[in-house]
Structure formats: C-alpha cells, structure tokens
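Submission checklist for the structure archive. All mandatory fields must be present; incomplete records are returned to the submitter.

[x] Identifier: HTH cro/C1-type domain-containing protein
[x] Organism: Duganella alba
[x] Residue count: 135
[x] Sequence attached
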Amino acid sequence: MNSSNERESFSQRLQQALKNAHYSPDSPTRLAREFNIRFDGRPITVHAARKWLVGEAIPTQEKLRMIAQWLGVPAEWLRFGGPEDGAPASDNAASLSRFESADVKLIADLQRLDEHHRQIAREFIRMLVRVNYQK
C-alpha cells in the first residue's frame, strides 16, 4: 500500500473510532482539544488534527497510542487496520478511557490538591454516588 493510501485508510479508521466513541469525525478543533487534554507531550494544532482527519498525515507512534487508548481501540488496528474492525480492546477499558473534557479537567484539579483535601473530595464523590443510587 502506498503512503497516500495508508494515510487515507488511517483517516477512515480514525473517523470510525471517533464515531464509535460518540465524537464528531468532522471537527478538527474538537479532536485537537480532546487530544491535548489527554496528551502529556507537546500539544497538537487544529491544523495537525485536520491533516489526520482528511488523510494527509498519520500521527507519531506515541500520539497514535494515546488516541487508541482514549477511543478504546487497539493501536495496531488504528494504524494498520485488520480484522479487529475497530472493536474496543475491552468494554471496560473503552468506557474508562472515554472521559468528557470536564471530567479530565476535574481529575487534573483533584491531583493538584494535597492528600487531605483529595481524601475529602473522594469521600464526597462516594457519598453523592450512594445518594444517587438510592433514588
């Protein structure tokens, strides 16, 4: 397969994975924002996200692994395709990797707290969950 076909095929798999994870495959701005929230390295631009979506570029291996984890698909499938057909690595792993932006920011805020305040926040969340299940 030539590199143009590889990029186009990657783009199609990325769009499918985004749809399966309930994200728009048509928004490079949202893709860049969601990616940058989760990626520890240098942030990507909207232009780079657009190139991934339209088949002009394939992300580096490190970025590709993060995208696969976020969207709950095997990294090998996302890069090369194959019989997995975009199936989640596991239902549990997929659901754990699909946080909304606000949830990711909340977790980052929680990590900035000292241990005492983190424990208070955890207890408060557990209490809310118990109250919610009693309804």
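[x] Structure attached
Curator remark: Residues 86-97 have pLDDT under 50 and may be disordered. The radius of gyration is 17 Å.
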